[in-house]
Design goal:
The chain has 356 residues and is of the alpha+beta class. 46% of the residues lie in helices and 13% in strands. The protein has 14 helices and ten strands. The strands form three sheets. Strands 6-7-8-10-9 form a five-stranded antiparallel β-sheet, with helices on both faces. It has a three-stranded antiparallel β-sheet with strand order 2-3-5. The longest helix has 21 residues.
């Protein structure tokens, strides 16, 4: 199966699970052709096909409840129940039981592709060394959430940079086109339960965000409360593309991975049937590559990404010792070698896609 056949097959399957928006799907297809990093983010369904073929020696590693669609832009900030600013992985749409190597190789591959399109000025060797160092340290320490208070001042500065200015954030959010039909009735009950006032007025806009889920329905609710704007996002979930490829019917793992990992939870993230609801704010959103510092702290950021990946894998505690033992048997450059093979496979698919 080539990239075109895989895309058609996955989108046919997806269309049987939920309504798709043709205009957004066409936009996704155009963005897939822009650069290989965007292509990787948009085509997790293809990754689950190629990874076992390109890296068969890694597909047999100890399995954990994994993130699945992990990449360097799958990190952001949120506020926990105590109001503290937290940093970490913030997208679990594709969570599934996978070898621990899967998340590490995908994260490293995304960094290598970001290097190739000049978004990340570090070497491939350093990427893999820092990710692995952070991952191993996270496992050995039994994990630790990234609370941006007394620790991690460099990460706090990144999270509160001028690029996340509240005025800019709300202006951009309010500019999205309004959905005149509003929310479907079942979703109105879900959303009103998350707003501070029971009969609060709000408007609904259509926000284009992400790449993996572009083409699906996405509702963004905007309301005024106590002199300022507040927002909630609602989007539908389907079982991971891992299980689509395997032909299995498996329940969503989103809530499981949140509950089991070493984490300071966002109290505004909730799963309602097949819909995920979360708060949007300047400091409750993902951090893009453009937000990262240009000339400093790259090693610290990559090490933190590896550590946070361990925080999630520790949700399968019985496998921690097995993972450390497995890592000890692998060659020193195993992650770089695997990430480079997967980057080459992704580039081949990207070239086939954009030349079609």
């Amino acid at each position: 199966m080539n990239i075109h056949e895989a895309t058609q097959a996955y989108e046919r399957w997806l269309g049987r699970q939920l309504p798709l928006l043709p205009a957004d799907l066409a936009l996704k297809h155009r963005r897939m052709a822009e650069d290989p990093f965007s292509f990787l983010r948009a085509t997790y369904y293809r990754w689950v096909q190629t990874f076992p073929q390109v890296c068969p020696e890694l597909a047999r590693a100890p399995a954990v409840l994994a993130v699945g669609d992990l990449h360097v832009e799958n990190f952001g900030t949120w506020r926990d129940a105590e109001g503290r600013l937290i940093w970490g992985i913030n997208d679990f749409d594709e969570a599934a039981v996978l070898p621990y190597t899967h998340d590490l190789v995908r994260l490293a591959t995304s960094a290598l592709l970001a290097i190739r399109v000049h978004h990340l000025p570090v070497t491939a060797g350093r990427v893999c060394r820092e990710l692995l160092a952070g991952y191993v340290k996270g496992l050995e320490l039994s994990g630790r959430p990234y609370v941006l208070a007394e620790r991690h001042p460099w990460l706090r500065d990144l999270a509160t940079s001028k690029l996340r200015d509240p005025v800019r954030f709300w202006k951009k959010l309010a500019a999205w086109p309004e959905i005149k039909t509003g929310l479907p009735r079942p979703l109105r009950r879900v959303v009103t339960g998350t707003l501070p006032e029971p009969r609060q007025e709000f408007r609904v806009v259509h926000r284009e965000a992400g790449l993996g889920s572009l083409g699906r329905q996405r509702f963004t609710v905007l309301a005024e409360h106590a002199g300022g704007l507040i927002a909630r996002e609602i989007k539908p979930l389907v079982t991971s593309a891992v299980y689509w490829e395997a032909g299995k019917t498996v329940p969503l793992q989103y809530a499981n991975i949140l509950a089991r990992s070493v984490r300071a939870l966002d109290p505004f993230v909730g799963l309602h049937d097949q819909w995920i609801v979360r708060r949007l704010s300047p400091y409750c959103s993902r951090i893009e590559l453009a937000d990262l510092p240009k000339k400093r702290e790259h090693g610290k950021v990559l090490r933190a990404m590896g550590h946070e990946t361990a925080n999630l894998h520790l949700g399968t505690p019985a496998r921690t010792r097995a993972i450390l033992q497995d890592l000890a048997t692998r060659p020193s450059r195993w992650l770089r070698a695997a990430a480079e093979r997967m980057a080459d496979a992704t580039l081949a698919d990207w070239n086939a896609w954009r030349n079609h």
